[in-house]
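ping. complex inputs:
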Amino acid sequence: MSDKPLQDDELFLRLAGETESAPSVDRAPSRVKAKAYSALIRQQEQSGPLLILTETRRAGHGLCVFENLWEKMPLGTSAKCFNCCSVCHARVLGENVESPPIYWGHCPYVAFKKS
Amino acid sequence: MEATPTKPQETPSHSPAASEPSDAQLVLEVLRKDRKATADFVNRHADHVYGYVRRRLFPRTEFADDLVQEVFLAAWANLGKFRGESSLRSWLLGIARHKVEDHYRKRLREVEVPGEEEGPVAEPVDPHNIQEAIEQRQAARKTEEILSSLPEAYSIVLRWRYWEKRGLSEIAQETGRTEKAIERLLARAREQFKRKWNER
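pong. complex structure:
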């Protein structure tokens, strides 16, 4: 070790560097992801409708059981842009419970739990 | 002393799977308001944003959830300006950094600043024990523990100055205080940090 004491600024910059290089294992809780996603979708809706479900499917994304039903119903285009999650209990559970008991496929709130 | 602002460091992570869309593709899909792409966007980046925000707020992590949400909302508001000059993750971490600094600014204005009327601490504390720990790469854990035990104003000013590498004048400007006042606050924070280090 050097006998000469480091100046305070240099000492603390090195301390900061030391903690930055320490491995981090932080993972976002699923409810944090769920809340961020819900807020983001609400924000997107403020500037107009979401992409129609038919287009989302065409882009290669799977739809959840409720979105599938909704998409097959004889509704107008604007109705098919509806955010089904806004009235779904999976969203409420996802936002408030860590690893919520929801299991069906292509639900974002299930995906947040898995990741 | 002034310091050059640096970008937040990316933490190593799992590499994207081959089937995952590129950043540019994902951004396009989110801009089209594809809800599933938006979920992928959050899912792919929330861990990094959360990890960064949490480390910067530690131990007062109760604000982390709200800040993560604010980062994604700000990202949406500016996503059309994303040019792909850096990775989407770096871009998001840049936004996260701004949000953390907004938080520091707000908290430094709200919390009680200990010993504000006093001058700098009179007795300097010997930093040799800290230097030794740095050289042996054993300083990280103790540093976090001590930062957690300091008054909030002290831990904020230390993180802002040394972890975010902001200069005194920048912090002074952001908080509406004089540079001298920030310098005194920082001096007291450093001395208390070193004292606690030597006591443990």
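The radius of gyration of chain B is 19 Å.
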